[in-house]
Amino acid sequence: MPGTDREIISADFQYDSTVVVASTGESLNSGDGFHDEDEPDSLKVIDVDRAELLSSTLSDAKLGTVMGLDSSVTGSFHGHPKLVCLRTGAVLQSWPSIESGNQRSSILLNDYQIPVLAADRARRRFAVASSTHLNVVKVPTTQAIQLS
């Protein structure tokens, strides 16, 4: 299985045997246990059946939890929901009015609460719950978005 030399934030199946993996800028080989906040996050797409790295790019944004959508884009939920191009790492669309948490690790300190997220890949939509309401967002098709 192709690995990563960075700390993995999140991973999600896109379709069939393909997984999208989001990683921080922290090198696992540095040995100091800290990462540089200025280092960009990365996205990798891996075919787990063939143990093959299909693509790898740096992202324009902090990624957090990811939601595989199709072979071109993934949803990202750090701060607020974003649609990110898997080829370039560019943010193609975002919903800044929806708070979706700042999770960047599976280890959470303090009493940080992660918002509830729901993915519906078949209908290209996701939902983010707050304490008072549920935001449901229909994600445009890749053809409707100008890919970078």
Task: Kindly list the characteristics that best describe this protein.
single chain, 148 residues, mainly beta, Thrombin, subunit H, four-stranded antiparallel beta sheet, 0% helix, globular
Topology:
Blueprint: E1 6-15, E2 18-27, E3 42-47, E4 52-58, E5 66-68, E6 73-76, E7 82-85, E8 91-94, E9 116-120, E10 125-129, E11 134-138
Antiparallel strand pairs: 1-2, 2-3, 3-4, 5-6, 6-7, 7-8, 9-10, 10-11
- Helix residue percentage: under 10%
Helix/strand order: EEEEEEEEEEE
Spans of at least 5 consecutive residues with low confidence: none
Order of strands across the widest beta sheet?
Answer: 1-2-3-4
What structural class do you assign from the helix and strand content? mainly beta
The main β sheet shows up as: 4 strands, antiparallel
- Report the CATH architecture of the domain at 6-99: Beta Barrel
Query: How many beta-strand runs?
Result: 11
Radius of gyration: 15 Å
| pLDDT averaged residue by residue | 83
Q: What is the third-level CATH name, the topology of the domain at 6-99?
A: Thrombin, subunit H
Please count the helical segments: 0
What overall geometry do the principal axes of the alpha carbons give? globular
How would you sum up this structure, described in words?
The protein is mainly beta and 148 residues long. The protein has a domain at 6-99: Thrombin, subunit H, CATH 2.40.10. It contains no helices and 11 strands. Strands 1-2-3-4 form a 4-stranded antiparallel beta sheet, with no helix packed on it. It has a 4-stranded antiparallel beta sheet with strand order 5-6-7-8, with no helix packed on it. Strands 9-10-11 form a 3-stranded antiparallel beta sheet, with no helix packed on it. A hairpin with a 5-residue loop joins strand 6 and strand 7. It starts with 5 loop residues before the first strand and ends in a 10-residue tail after the last strand. 28% of the residues are buried. The model has no long low-confidence stretch (mean pLDDT 83).
